[in-house]
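Sequence design from tokenized structure. All designs in this work follow the same two-part layout: the structure record, then the generated sequence. An example of the structure record is given first.
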């Protein structure tokens, strides 16, 4: 017996959170009856579980690292018909989804998988997966603002603090910097810099945890190795993933 949302996630329906939303919205049936209660346990070997009338079956787990270009959205559906990051994974038969998001105007590394358990863990604040971004802003970054980023900036959801800030190049009307964050809130980098009065010219995610692949060209993807996946799982068991320099 396993919790229904866990079974759905393992079948590649989506992250644990998305599966919970599908349950409460009435999309899931067990032996023909709609189930809306979270936390219910089911034996998948003895019960017929369907999502929108389609029986679920456990898919082979796949894991990809994509270097997303600008102009692609990290959603399964887009009402505006914009190109999706998942469309770049040519020849993939499994239904995959992105782990977290990069906004349409940003580029860089993102993980795609049908492993709902791993996706949920990597997105959960408990694990604090560090993500590193290369950012160019449209004017000279003052040292006091570097200190402010490290102390923390208040957003509507709460205080967000950069784990690490490195100024790589500081000019008269632009600054190139590297920022590492753990929170993973929506458009977090852009929002904290805007709060300080800086306009982001370009933003690229260069690292997820320890994953760093400068040879992966824009718009291309590769499978994660077994050791990379195993490393995520092993560090998840320890409760957190270290930032660069702590690994």
């Amino acid at each position: 017996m396993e919790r229904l949302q866990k079974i759905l996630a393992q079948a590649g329906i989506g992250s644990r959170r998305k599966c919970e939303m599908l349950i409460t919205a009435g999309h899931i049936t067990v032996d023909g009856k709609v189930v809306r209660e979270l936390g219910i346990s089911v034996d998948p070997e003895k019960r017929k579980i369907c999502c929108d009338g389609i029986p679920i079956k456990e898919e082979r787990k796949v894991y990809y690292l994509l270097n997303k270009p600008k102009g692609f959205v990290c959603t399964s559906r887009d009402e505006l018909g914009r190109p999706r990051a998942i469309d770049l994974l040519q020849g993939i038969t499994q239904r995959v989804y992105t782990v977290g998001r990069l906004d349409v105007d940003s580029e860089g590394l993102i993980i795609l998988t049908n492993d709902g358990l791993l996706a949920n863990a990597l997105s959960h604040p408990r694990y604090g997966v560090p993500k590193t971004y290369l950012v160019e802003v449209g004017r000279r970054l003052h040292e006091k603002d570097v200190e402010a980023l490290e102390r923390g900036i208040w957003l509507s959801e709460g205080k967000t603090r950069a784990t690490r800030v490195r100024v790589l190049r500081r000019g008269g009307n632009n600054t190139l910097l590297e920022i590492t964050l753990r929170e993973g809130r929506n458009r977090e980098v852009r929002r904290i810099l805007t709060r300080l009065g800086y306009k982001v010219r370009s933003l690229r995610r260069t690292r997820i945890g320890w994953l760093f692949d400068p040879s992966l060209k824009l718009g291309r993807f590769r499978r994660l190795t077994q050791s990379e996946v195993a490393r995520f799982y092993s560090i998840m068991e320890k409760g957190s993933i270290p930032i660069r320099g702590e690994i």
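The CA atoms of residues 87 and 117 lie 23 Å apart. We note this feature because it recurs in several other targets discussed in the main text.
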